Amino acid sequence: MRVSTLFSVVAGLLLALPPALAQEMAPPAPTEDLPVAAAPEVDAGPALSRADLEAWVDGFMPYGLASGDIAGAVVVVVADGEVLLQKGYGVADLATGAPVDPERTLFRPGSVSKLFTWTAVMQLVEQGRLDLDADVNQYLDFEIPAVDGKPVTLRHVMTHTPGLEEQIRGLIASDPEEIVPLGEALKRWVPERIHAPGTTPAYSNYATALAGYIVERVSGESFDDYIDRHLFEPLGMRSSSFRQPLPAPLLARMSKGYERASDGEAKPYEFISLAPAGSLAATGADMARFMIAHLQRGRLGDARILSERTAERMHTTGQPSIEPLNRMMLGFYETSINGHRAIAHGGDTQWFHSDLQLFPDDGLGVFVSFNSSGREGATGHLRSALVRGLADRYLPGPGPRGEGVDEDTARQHAEAIAGHYDSSRRPDSNFMSLVGLMGQVKVFANEDGTISASLMVGPDGTPKKWREISPWVWQDTAGSDRLAAEVVDGAVTRFTAEPYAPIMVFQRLPAWRASSLLLPLLGLSLAVLLLTALAWPVSALVRRHYGVRYALTGADARAHRIVRIVALVVPLTMIAVLVMVVMMMSDLSLLGPGSDAMVNALRLLSTVVFPLGALLALWNAWQVLRSRRRVLAKLWSVLLALACLFLLWVAAAHHVLGYGAYY
């Protein structure tokens, strides 16, 4: 997996689509409520029927799996309280060739699991046992600190606006021994609060797990028992479980997970440390029951999991991100398409990639899950294309249409939004903040007046183009997603785009923190030091070859030799830290306790090497500058000192120095 996994996994368990601010609002106006030009008439399209639907999906999925190098998938479509399609495609086990069976094969829907946690919370809210606007500390046996006197509430938690930084350690493990009880995992390390509560969407697995723990404490049942009794049993979801390890009868029917189908190597079962945020395993048939219950406002047959009023509240209480983009409901993302109101949640583990979309006003629900990561970005594009294709075919309608802006304004606004941005969803107080340095989002103005953003790419892997359709609102030139900026005193302070809008925004960085400046400086500093280290043996060999004596003596000789050691040890330590971070983000199994010794050793080494290296480099520069050596030697000694000081600053600013393996 790539460093970009932070936005797919650490956003789905990491799937981050984007959320909203913090007070309950009236049900939102449709996202298409921009200034609208006369809309063209839309072809009604074919009627939704089992036969037409199956023919369309059968035409889409096999090619999608083959082109994406994906082993198998399950697709479920429900409408008006009935299952119209539940079908497996490809295989659940490449070794045996076992096909995907929607009734029997279990998939890992990742963060789609959160919808069950949120439903459980709303059950207890309905019973008057939880208050969405109360300080969560009244339900806990440990404390979540307030920021500026503002406590975290369950409303903040359900809309991903508690202001917590990203927690990555122990996200996904392959060893069940690494899983600790929920309460213990939450108390071990409380992420720093980096945003005021209710102001900034920043998707949080920790906050979701906190909600699951509150369900445990208030109900008096373990989270697993509560979900079994109050959701799975009444809905007849007999092939679903949050339990880890998975019960043996269900594990026997669990699909294998793969990186790519062509590799053929089944991956170990993934254990989620913050279980309420993503540990569900379920069949497609069971997910159909859950979708129908929500589409019927909390009812499935004679069973009711939520009252109509509570379900409606959950589906329509919107928290804005940046207007007028899609918002975060109470647990669901708003994802309206073609003027049809839609709510959804995506989910990603390392190997499974899923999406659940509901169209409440149309009684339609779609669930898809893939058991392979596939070619880079394939599962994300396929699940989006599947939902979009179904909506365009069976729920056509006009997309958002703005009046547009004049060419000069478009160019001015494009220049104004251009720059470097940091995600609101990020590790901030620990060494994993280096991921943010290496993965900043760059917005740039194109020659034709459109803008592009480095994170937002199309199926071909190139950045999408966005054209301004109303002041500070842009639309994907090849689709209907929108991008919007927040402007304060004429300056863009942050922006976001669909589908990220409900769960995160991108905050402008000052020029001195832009990766376009810092990464070249980092590379230059490493190069200066490594060239100095390389010059040591090279110069010795040259002197030996020509029979030239070493000219320096005394303090000059000592400084010269010491700074050569510094020039080797300092860059190698920084390279080791960067390699460690990249490795951990490429293989999430390295984010567990098994890597703690490596993390602590490198942090302790850094705490000695970078400050000492900077001091020795400064001492060397002083020695050289006051000597009679050549101007070039003096300039190089200053460069060495500056390189060491810069690496010390990077290590300090990104919390590499110190001790501890919580991140």
Automatic annotation (TrEMBL):
Domain named Beta-lactamase-related: residues: 64-376
Q: Check the UniProt entry and state the signal peptide residues, or none.
A: 1-22
Q: What is this protein called?
A: Serine hydrolase
Name any one Pfam family assigned in the record: Beta-lactamase
Residues spanning the membrane:
517-542, 562-585, 597-619, 631-652
PANTHER family reported in the protein's UniProt record: BETA-LACTAMASE-RELATED DOMAIN-CONTAINING PROTEIN, D-ALANYL-D-ALANINE-CARBOXYPEPTIDASE/ENDOPEPTIDASE AMPH
Instruction: Give, as one word, the top-level EC class.
Output: hydrolase
Q: What is its EC number?
A: 3.1.1.103
InterPro entries in UniProt: AmpC-like, Beta-lactam-related, Beta-lactam/transpept-like
Keywords linked to the UniProt accession? Hydrolase, Membrane, Signal, Transmembrane, Transmembrane helix
Q: Name one GO molecular function term.
A: hydrolase activity
Where does the source fall among the domains of life?
A: Bacteria
